[in-house]
Amino acid sequence: MLTENPANLLPRMLSLSGFIVILLFMHLASGGPCDNVVTISSSWPGGLTASLNISITTPITSWEIDLKFSSAVPWLKAWDATESKINEVEYQLRNLSSNGVQSAGATLTSVGFNAFFSSSTTPIITSVLFNGDNVCLIDTKTEARQPIIEEENNLLVDAWPTKYNYREVITKSLLFYYAQRSGRLPVNDNPIPYRSDSALNDRGQDGEDLTGGYYDAGDHLKLGFPLASSITIVAWSIIDYPLGYSSAGKLTTARNMVKWATDYFIKAHVQTNKFYGQVGDGDLDHDYWGRPEEMTMKRPAFFISTSKPGSDLAGETAAALAATSIVFKTVDSTYSALCLTHAKQLYDFAKRHRGIYSESIPQVADFYSSSGFGDELAWSASWLYRATNDNAYLDDAKAFYTDFNLSDNPSEFSWDTKTAGVQVLLAKLTNENLYRNAAKTFCDSKVEQPKTPKGLLFVTKWGSLGAASNIAFICLQAADLNINPLAYRQLAQQQIHYALGDTGRSFVVGFGHNPPLKPHHASSSCPNRPAVCDWDAFDSPNPNPQILYGALIGGPDNQNDHYVDDRHNFVTNELPPPPIVNPKRKNFLGQPAPQGYVAGVGRGATGFTTRSDIGPARDANDVPDDRHPAPAKRKKDDDEDLEEDLNDANYDEFAGYGGSLFNKDPYDKDDEEADAVYEAIDERMDEKRREYREKRRKEEIEKYRQERPKIQQQFSDLKRELCAVSEEEWKNIPEVGDARNRKQRLHGRREKFTPLPDSVLTRNLGGESSTSIDPKSGLASAFPGMLTPTGDLDLRKIGQARNTLMDIKLNQVSDSVSGQTVVDPKGYLTDLQSMIPTYGGDINDIKKARLLLKSVRETNPNHPPAWIASARLEEVTGKLQAARNLILRGCETCPNSEDLWLEAARLVPVDTAKNVIAQAVNHLVNSVKLWIKASELEQDMKAKKRVFRKALEHIPNSVRLWKAAVELEEPEDAKILLSRAVECCPTSVELWLALARLETYENARKVLNKARENIPTDRQIWITAAKLEEAHGNTTMVEKIIDRSINSLAANGVEINREHWLKEAVDAEKSGAVLTCQAIIKFVIGHGVEDEDRKHSWLEDADNFTSQGAFECSRAVYSHSLETFPAKKSIWLRAAHFERQHGTRDSLESLLQRAVAHCPQAEVLWLMGAKSKWLAGDVPAARSILSLAFQANPNSEEIWLAAVKLESENWEYERARKLLAKARNSAPTPRVLMKSAKLEWHLGDLAEALKQLQTAIEQFPDYPKFYMMQGQIHVLQQRMTQARESYNLGTRKCPTSVPLWLLLARLDESQGNMTRARSVLEKARQKNPQNSQLWLEAIRLEWKTGLKDIASAMMAKALQDCPISGLLWAETIFIVDRPQRKTKSVDALKKCEHDPHVLLAVSKLFWTERKTQKCREWFNRAVKIDPDFGDAWGYFYKFELLHGTVEEQNDVKKRCVQAEPRHGEVWTSISKGPQNWRARTEDILLLVAEALPVPV
Question: Could you count the other beta carbons within 10 Å of the beta carbon of residue 766?
Answer without folding.
Answer: 12
